[in-house]
Amino acid sequence: MNPQDDQELERRLRQLESEVNPPSNSSVSHSRKSTPTNSLGAFWKWYGELSRSGQMIVIAIGVLGGLAIVSAVLRLVMFTIQLAFLAGLLYIIYRLFFNSRRSGR
């Protein structure tokens, strides 16, 4: 490659880096930080601007999503209880066979 091509590539690389990573001011970065209260406030503002039917749809999606999460958690708890019960049952069966073999000798 030519030295001129290398210089052109380096110049374009610096230009792209400056576009991707603009110089940051500390005051700008502090004002753009997202906090939970700002996000919640933005959600309520967005929700308030929806039509009545849009609000109902958002509520329905929220309820369905919440029920799906509760269902998944309950299934996980039920699976854990079943697994513990099965482990206890297998342990009892093992102890019965283990003790019966020792007493049979």
Instruction: Please identify the structural class as seen in this structure.
Output: mainly alpha
How much helical structure, as a percent, in the residues? over 70%
Rounded to the nearest angstrom, the distance between the terminal CA atoms is 87 Å
Order of helices and strands: HHHH
Sum up the structure in keywords.
single chain; 105 residues; mainly alpha; 4 helices
Please give a structural write-up.
- The protein is mostly helical and 105 residues long.
- The chain contains 4 helices and no strands.
- The longest helix has 53 residues.
- The model has no long low-confidence stretch (mean pLDDT 84).
